[in-house]
Design brief:
Layout (H helix, E strand, L loop, with lengths): L2 H8 L4 E2 L6 E2 L3 E3 L4 H13 L4 E3 L15 E3 L7 E5 L4 E5 L4 H10 L2 E2 L11 H6 L16 E7 L5 E5 L4 H7 L8 E8 L1 E2 L2 E10 H6 L1 H7 L2 E6 L5 E10 L8 H25 L4 H11 L3 E5 L1 H5 L7 E9 L3 H14 L8 E6 L14 E9 L5 H13 L3 E2 L9 H7 L3 H11 L8 H7 L2
Parallel strand pairs: 3-5, 4-5
Antiparallel strand pairs: 1-2, 6-7, 7-11, 8-12, 9-10, 9-11, 13-15, 13-16, 14-15, 14-18, 17-19, 17-20, 18-19
Helix pairs in contact: 8-9, 11-12, 13-15
């Protein structure tokens, strides 16, 4: 069977993202096993007048990866290509899920420096949308990239790094899928280390009053505020010179599976059916998690299972603006008829030098709002977005927002640098779709 026919038959199926907010039925699908095969699929799509997008595991809430043309699935582009212990880098195929990368690095006695709180995404999807964790000194996953390989609109393979095609490297680390299809990523790594996590409930006002100190005193600080309550759950992660002391199996199951997933799923379902009960359930949720301290390897501390499905909007603010924005957000919720069953997540990141990174050129704090999947969310997100954009917020590229190129060009000083590079690499907009047209312009 020819590759073209196989692609066309595969393209009869409908692809949906994790949250169920996006569904597309492309004319054609491709599952390339090499950069050369991917380049041929791109060239063939261009000849046939099809737009090209790549999907990973579908953890973006926006339609950033949607297409009705050629949908590339990278599940055969997986695994580690090479480990360079002298340079302390690892080169990995673009479709490798972060979970598999973390487990493989652990077997080699290596680790990423920082990561987000889930690891289901592919490495290319994670960096292309600006996935991040929290850190005083260590930045997003994309900021740990040292080189990229991507297939451009003419089907050729382009390598880039700080030394090779540096102008492409500056942009393609958070490239939104607009510059080409990533086929391999080289990350900086370090010898595996231990983190001690300290999780502790804390009053909302105390967290805000001590936010600068909590940020300065901890390598990784984040917190969750439960709307309709004055309570937060804080998490401080710092490197440990001691020995591993992971949470006990029973305790971990109670905290991470029963309370954070099982019982929370039940409460969310009840809240969706009976919105008036949400404030009481929020108070119950905010009291369910207790203080705990444990020490483990990085990815087991940074990441958590996320089995309750939701929709999310997140904005990066100048770090100095986040306390005021959170007070405004709380006041808005309290005076509104909204019923919010999901906590608000707050994290930080240092400034980086990536063209369209949400932390590009400024120290940032992230405010993420969520709603349980199937619950009306637009009124809440619209009200929150109004507050966050008033503080110069930059939306996460893979999460729900309504911003367009006119707004984004004001909050990203290097916006035209990115669009000029896109014009050079993809003048025919082979990799465009309606989402990219909105956020980048024509």
């Amino acid at each position: 069977m020819s590759a073209t026919l196989a692609d066309q038959r595969a393209g009869r199926s409908t692809w949906r993202n994790w949250a169920g907010t996006v569904a597309v039925t492309p004319r054609r699908e491709a599952r390339p096993a090499s950069a050369a095969e991917l380049g041929e699929a791109v060239r063939r799509a261009a000849e046939d007048g099809l737009r090209v997008k790549t999907v990973g595991t579908g953890h973006s809430f926006t339609s950033i990866a949607a297409t009705d043309g050629l949908l590339i699935r990278p599940d055969l582009l997986t695994g580690i290509r090479r480990i360079d212990r002298s340079a302390m880098t690892v080169t990995v195929e673009s479709g490798t899920p972060l979970r598999r990368l973390n487990e493989a690095l652990d077997r080699e006695g290596l680790s990423l420096t920082n990561m987000g709180d889930i690891m289901a995404q592919t490495v290319a999807g994670a960096i292309s949308t600006g996935t991040h964790g929290t850190g005083r000194d260590s930045a997003s996953i994309a900021a740990q990239v040292r080189a990229l390989e991507l297939v451009t609109a003419d089907g050729s393979v382009l390598s880039c790094s700080a030394q090779e095609n540096p102008e492409v490297f500056a942009a393609a680390r958070v490239g939104l899928g607009a510059l080409g299809v990533i086929t391999a990523v080289t990350f900086a790594v370090e010898p595996v280390f231990l983190l001690t996590a300290r999780e502790e409930p804390m009053p909302f006002e105390r967290v805000l009053e001590e936010f600068d100190a909590l940020h300065a005193e901890n390598e990784h600080f984040e917190f969750y505020w439960f709307p309709h309550t004055g309570r937060c759950n804080t998490k401080r992660n710092n490197r440990s010179a001691g020995t591993a002391a992971p949470p006990g199996a029973v305790g971990a199951w109670i905290e991470d599976e029963l309370l954070s997933n099982g019982a929370f799923q039940l409460l969310c379902s009840l809240g969706r059916a009976v919105p008036a009960a949400v404030p009481a359930m929020a108070r119950l949720s905010s009291r369910a998690l207790s203080a705990r301290t444990y020490t483990d390897i990085p990815y087991k501390v940074f990441t958590s299972p996320r089995r309750v499905r939701f929709v999310e909007m997140e904005y990066a603010l100048p770090r100095e603006a986040v306390v005021a924005a959170l007070r405004e957000l709380r006041a808005m919720v309290e005076r509104s008829p909204l019923r919010i069953g999901f906590p608000v997540e707050v994290r930080t990141a240092p400034a980086d030098d990536i063209t369209l990174s949400t932390a590009s050129g400024r120290e940032s704090a992230y405010v993420a709002v969520h709603m349980y999947r199937g619950t009306p969310y637009r009124a809440y997100f619209t009200a929150a977005e109004r507050i966050l954009t008033a503080h110069g917020g930059r939306p996460h590229w893979g999460k729900i927002h309504t911003r367009d190129a006119a707004y984004l060009s004001e909050v990203y000083p290097r916006f035209t640098e990115f669009t000029a590079l896109r014009d050079r690499l993809d003048p025919g907009r082979l990799f465009h779709n309606p989402y990219l047209r909105r956020v980048l312009g024509d």
